[in-house]
Write a structure and sequence with these properties.
The complex is a heterodimer of chains A (116) and B (112). Chain A has 116 residues and is an all-beta fold. Chain A has no helices and twelve strands. With 112 residues, chain B is an all-beta fold. Chain B contains no helices and eleven strands. In chain B, strands 2, 4, 5, 6, 9, 10 and 11 form a seven-stranded mixed sheet that branches. A four-stranded antiparallel sheet of chain B has the order 1-3-8-7, with no helix packed on it. In chain B, strand 9 and strand 10 form a beta hairpin. The relative contact order of chain B is 0.33. The chains are: A mainly beta (116), B mainly beta (112). Chains A and B meet through strand 6 of A and strand 4, strand 5, strand 9 and strand 10 of B.
Amino acid sequence: GNSVTQMEGPVTLSEEAFLTINCTYTATGYPSLFWYVQYPGEGLQLLLKATKADDKGSNKGFEATYRKETTSFHLEKGSVQVSDSAVYFCALRGSRTTDSWGKLQFGSGTQVVVTP
Amino acid sequence: EAQVTQNPRYLITVTGKKLTVTCSQNMNHEYMSWYRQDPGLGLRQIYYSMNVEVTDKGDVPEGYKVSRKEKRNFPLILESPSPNQTSLYFCASSLQGNTEAFFGQGTRLTVV
């Protein structure tokens, strides 16, 4: 079945540092890939997405590129702020031709802590 | 405002006492699902529904029931809760199975 593996946290950074969170996946067909963010006490919010190979999703200074050859979707931000402190989840959604269509498969989440 | 609303936000109950967590969305979405979030495991899908009266099991359905009698509502039912169902639960909806998912605020359930 489909699976998502992301780096374990917590990741602790100073403000303005560069952030990378690695995410790799296993899936049949052509899944869609997502990054969700969960701020303390809140539900998950979509941060960015990519629906086909070589697509780059971007939002709020975050970027991730769908790399089919390496089955990866790493999240990056060039200069983090304290307000970026949250838990980040990588997820995939199976393609329409597979049994997993519609289901979001999540990684275990990576907590990011940004200090002033 | 487009949103997914879950109730209650927090619930403490005793083993075996039936409970229902409600979920409602106001976006006319077809696809709805329930997830549980546990430390180190991410979110795992419990049940999903592709439309009214169409529901199916996710990865961890044991001990849960759902129904989809109306498009906007998708309640999660625990007929006989047990301590291993202590978790943080999220309801999500999307226009269709392959579009962006919107999540509720979560329900933190403790079963003692």
